[in-house]
Amino acid sequence: MKAMLYDAFEKAPEILNLPDPTPTDDGVVIKVGATGLCRSDWHGWMGHDPDIRLPHVPGHELAGEVVATGRGVMRFKVGDRVTVPFVSGCGHCSECHSGNQQVCSNQFQPGFTHWGSFAEYVAIGYADTNLVHLPETIDDATAASLGCRFATSFRAVADQARTAPGEWIAVHGCGGVGLSAIMIATALGANAIGIDLSDEKLNLARACGAVATINASSVADPVEAVREITGGGAHVSIDALGHPVTCFNSIKNLRRRGRHVQVGLMLGQHSTPQIPMAQVIGHELEIYGSHGMQAWRYDAMMSMIAVGRMAPSKLISSRISLEEAVPALMAMDRATAPGISVITGF
Ligand SMILES: [Zn+2]
Ligand SMILES: [Zn+2]
Fold first, then answer.
1. Which cofactors are named for this entry (predicted)?
2. Reported CATH class of domain 150-289
């Protein structure tokens, strides 16, 4: 199979021909139809993720068709169109038994713990616990975007933050995660504020439903700007970027008893950011992480997409080839193009 592989961190990945994968007893092999390019792939390539063993094939947001199944797989067959959460649970540990496969202690992560989907084929373990059947109405490129950013945002906004109709939600960073969070919060009836440094991204935030936007470079203090718009602070705030500044602001701009959800990854030198803990205590703030979403929660998300309440296809800004993904991956630390890039040419 054709695949993108790197054998050293921070060294340019290559497009190579590698042996086709075979399924484990509890796994499947998927012919990749589309796979999203995400900042987490950049973190992995930089060596920020301790799970990655070299040489490595990245890619964790995928959709495609099952082409081979292991002997123990009961719920999926060759020809099924599927996607999979980027954190896949083992199905056997106590976290999985409690329905929290997203924090499984033996998790399978394509593109991190195992080779991923920047390839013609990808092997996925624990298939019965994690694969999700795709309806015909959701194409591969849209479904690929659900595997990480949109699903993680759905869990962050709907499940972790318990965002309610009429509440104010501040979304710091309007890349793929942030735009997803704005779209989901709007569908749930909340009032979303998009915050970014790029007017182009803020325009997209408004197109996704944001009722207000703040360009953090043109106001004296984004925290005060959020307090003013919301009349005292946001009920919910999301750091969708993953940076010490956006993390701090996202907690600081909450109203009393507000909920912050950290979605953007904080790795490497950013892993221990400053937090306004006196305010967390005095105002009884709640702080959550959000890391993927269980396969069984996809039903709720996909039914909202099916009836037109959310349109994640709007977030896709470019469809690129595997070759074009090499420079795009390496450039993800710099200011990226608005929206989500999806690899659809192999
Ligand atoms: Zn488990
Ligand atoms: Zn991702």
1. Zn(2+)
2. alpha beta
CA–centroid distance, 124 to ligand 1, in Å, is 15
DSSP assigned state of 336: P
Instruction: Determine the distance separating the centroid of ligand 2 and the alpha carbon of 46, expressed in angstroms.
Output: 15
Q: Closest-lying ligand to the alpha carbon of 112?
A: 2
pLDDT value of position 337: 73
User: How far is Cα 198 from Cα 338, in angstroms, rounded to an integer?
Assistant: 9
pLDDT at 335: 65
CATH number of 2-148+293-345: 3.90.180.10
Give the model's pLDDT for residue 334. 78
Ligand 1 centroid from CA 122, angstroms? 21
State the alpha helices, DSSP H only, in the chain: 39-46, 94-97, 127-130, 140-145, 151-154, 176-187, 199-207, 222-230, 244-252, 277-282, 298-306, 322-330
pLDDT reported for residue 312: 93
* Domain boundaries of the chain, sorted by first residue: 2-148+293-345, 150-289
Gap from CA of 64 to ligand 1 centroid (Å) = 24
Coil/strand/helix, residue 281: helix
Distance from residue 127's CA to the centre of ligand 2 (Å) = 19
Cα of 177 to ligand 2 centre, how many Å?
Answer: 9
pTM: 0.93
CB 73 within 8 A of CB 67: no
User: What count of other Cβ atoms lies within 10 Å of the Cβ of residue 62?
Assistant: 31
Task: Give the mean pLDDT per block of 10 residues along the chain (346 residues).
Answer: 98 98 98 94 93 97 98 98 96 97 96 98 97 94 89 97 98 95 98 97 96 97 98 98 97 98 90 95 97 95 94 92 96 79 95
Cα of 293 from ligand 1 centre, angstroms: 13
Burial of 44 (0-12, 13-18, 19+ CB in 10 A): buried
Output the CA 38–ligand 2 centroid distance in Å: 4
Helix (H) or strand (E) run with residue 72 in it: none
